[in-house]
Every structure is written in structure tokens, then in C-alpha cells.
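Write out the 3D structure for:
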Amino acid sequence: FPHPGGDVIGERPIDLFVSAFQALGAAFSESDDTYTLSAPSGLSGGEFFFRVVTVTGTEAVMMAATQAKAPVTLKNCALEPEVIATAEYLKLCGARIEGAGTSTIIIYPSALTPPANPYRIIPDRIEAASFLALGALAATELTVTGVEPAHLDSVLNALTYVGVPIRVTKDSITVSAPEKLLPTRLRTHEYPGFATDAHPPFLILLTQAEGESVMIESIFDGRLKYTDELVKMGADIKIV
């Protein structure tokens, strides 16, 4: 595979992926911008500890581990709903996976086949958070439907703190812009904490609060670069 690209928001290492596959017996080599992982005789079982919590790393190794020769134990795994959903889909395909949604996941060798019935992809919680932030800024009333409110606890908590009226049903969330937004302090964190991907729309929301708010980004050290453009538009933001 080629060197991965993506947005420039800070360190996004691939060594977590490489180290995990090597721990399961894969060989790794690199040439210029190309990386090669191979396991001609198959992946072995074993144990791997993620030194940094990674959603995609957890998912990728969990998927590959279903085809290992022996059980694989992954530790310090991501807890995100997307990891659970990936595991649930694999289980419908015949995989035996225990612990998805906790920090330790055990995957047993499995023969996979396509599921008998269609699988419904879970709602996009970051997209929902973006719409909720927009509604909290400017809507008389805005309802986001088809959501899983339990996946948005940190977002709903943050909206409550800044004074946004919220109404929650089984699969919808309704917000409206309050007369006054209150300042608050937010810190991004791995799930179930406040998602780093929900940080930008909420920072924009906080530019309209009456008072000084603090946003602490703990995941990506380059995440705040976009605020330079907001300052050009009149926002009062200081990076410290």
C-alpha cells in the first residue's frame, strides 16, 4: 500500500498497524513511498497491546485476526461504537469475537461467509454532532433523525452546558438556538469522551458564547490550524 494521505491535523502514525501485524507473524518491508505486509503461511495467534488507542487500528487488526491460526488478544482497544459495529458485522459473517466495546478484544479463528441478511450501518455520530451544533447556533428548531442518542452522550452534555434546549427520543434529537450561549470548557478524548472530529463545529459554536471558553485538543496536535481562518472572519481565538 502507498504512504497514506489525509488532512494535516497532526501525527497519524502507521507503526501501530505495522507493529500489530508483525506481532501476528507478518513480514514488513518498505521502499520509497510503498509499504508491503505479507504472511505467506498465515497469521499466527498471540497478543498485542496498542500503545495509543486507535479506532482504525483496532478494526483492521480485529478483521485480520479472524483468519489467524490461533486466538488473538488485543489490548488497549478503541471503545468507539464503530468498533462494536464492525465486530457485530463480522459475527454475522461467522466470526467469534469477544469484548468489542471494551479495552480487551479476543478474536478466534473463523471461516467467514457473507451474512444471510442485510446489515444496517450505524448512524454517523459526527455528522449528527455537526448538525446539532448548527442548530444550536441558528435554528428556531432543528431535529436530527435516525440517530443513536447513546452514541452522543458527550455532545449532548456539552450542549446542555452551553444552555441549548434539547429534546431526545429513541432515534431523534431536537435542539434550538438559545437567547444566550454560555461559555464552557471542553476537552477532546477517546470515546466515550468528546470526539476530536466534533471539535471544529463546536468551537465555532463557542465563538458565539457570551464569555471566554476553553477548548483543549488532546488527540491531534495540528487540529487547531483552521482557527487562523476563523480569526480572519472576526473570531477572537487565542492558541496557547
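The longest strand covers residues 27-31.
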